[in-house]
Amino acid sequence: MKTRILTALLIILVVAFPVLYGGWPLEALALFIIGASAWEWLRILPNYSKWNWLLPILIVGVIATRFVEGNWRFVLVACMILFLWSIPVFTSSFTSDDCNAAIVYYVLFSLFYISIGELILNHLYLITIVFATYGSDTGAYFVGCSFGKHKMNPRVSPKKSWEGFFGGILSGFVISLLISAIYKQNVDPTVNLLLCLICPIFAELGDLCFSAIKRHFKIKDFSNFLPGHGGVLDRVDSLLVNILVFGILYHIFLI
User: Fold this and answer.
1) Half-sphere exposure of 13 (CA within 13 A, CB side)
2) Tens digits of residue pLDDT in 41-98
3) Quick one: which H or E segment has residue 60?
């Protein structure tokens, strides 16, 4: 427990400044998450050690996708997918399952990094997202421990309950709405309200999606990079999904 608390404090100290300041610190944090997540995402695959040369190619591909615009972005994404799709033809150590995992990483984190670029334009939305996400996680934990009786999906996450789910949604909404009242004049009210409403729901969904991956590969955590907390992906799973939610809202309301 002591190790878990100390690690949690260190995570808060490292992450707080990029979230509150935005700009280049947020850019640096996003790049760290992309690199660490690529390693954690792929290392759980059985034959990863035989084709780990692909890791830097995927990371560079994700970064390039954000900075290539217009028709060339389509060209880059299509070429990357075709490249990954074709590797199993030429080497037996890189299977179709490996191919699918690599493509999912590339697409998912390219969208994440594009959304980060949009958040940097106004990082105050990220503050709303963070409090909606982790307010939901915290509320779901305490409500679930105190009142949880009806299991949501024991196959994927045996400890999660419907009581915790709805408690998390309520806590995430209230906390993010109250915090965002401090800077409400500097954000679009419709987008901010939708983030407060939607992000607590998708925080729970994101956690379940990543739990399903871990259960499939029979692992407890994606890595032990963060003592007591598992890996980077174990900490940012819900946040990752909610940054994609912001990207969707950005393209609907803010462009």
Assistant:
1) 6
2) 999 999 999 999 999 999 999 999 999 988 999 999 999 999 999 999 999 999 999 9
3) helix 54-67
Which residue is it, tokens 């925080």? 203
Q: CA–CA distance from 108 to each of 154, 183, 206, 244 (Å)? A: 26, 30, 12, 9
Q: Where are the beta strands (DSSP E) in the chain?
A: 151-153, 157-161
CA distances from 38 to 18, 43, 110, 217 (A): 21, 8, 12, 16
Q: How many Cβ atoms are within 10 Å of 150's Cβ, its own excluded? A: 10
Q: What distance lies between CA 224 and its chain's CA centroid?
A: 17
What are the beta bridge partners of residue 157? 153
CA distances from 132 to 26, 70, 184, 198 (A): 18, 32, 15, 9
Helices and strands in the chain, H and E counts: 9, 2
Do the Cβ atoms of 196 and 173 come closer than 8 Å?
Answer: yes
**4-41 burial, b if ≥16 CB within 10 A, otherwise e?**
eeebeeeeeeebeebbeebeebbeebbeebbbbbbbbb
Candidates 255, 249, 1; CA nearest to 125 is 249
> Tens digit of pLDDT for each residue in 191-221?
999 999 999 999 999 999 999 999 999 999 9
**What sign does the dihedral 231-160-106-239 (CA atoms) show?**
negative
Query: Which residue reads 């915790």 in tokens?
Result: 164
- pTM for this prediction: 0.94
